[in-house]
Request: fold
Amino acid sequence: MSPIVVFQEKKPKIHKDAYVSPQATLVGDVEIGEYSNIWPGSVIRGDFSKVQIGAYTNIQDGCVIHAHSEDAPVILGNFVSVGSNVVMHGCYCGDAVTIGDGVIIYEGVTIGEGAFVAPGSILVQNMVVPPRLSVSGAPAKQVRELSREDITRQKERAEIIARVFHKLRRWLPSESTF
Reply:
């Protein structure tokens, strides 16, 4: 069974068509949208503020998402892909954003719609990534502007992952199998 932890009378809300791995942990004020999926080893903590994950968004293996101060919720839009081992604190991501493996995002970061964050990048506190830009590095710097086709591919990738999980969920472990 997936650890779903009530914290200060707030229990995670998971849409009926979302999938949360039994090996993921959700704490407190967390909301998971329609067709989104949370992969094994991920920890999503809404203990000090809200974590809101939109529709068709995937949080891959081993991510830590934490709203660790009252004035810094984590808001992820729709069709967002978050790669493995990403750490996010109090940030905002617009729709159709792709975040590569191993990225670290500090509090106050804003990532605009359709942006791409290269694997291993570090986004420093209060950084703003404008819409449709690719950033890379530690600290992250602008690499290039993304084309409409790039952004369409990012959105389609998130949608494909959501569809696969929705079809496979009947074979994946769930709370009822434990």
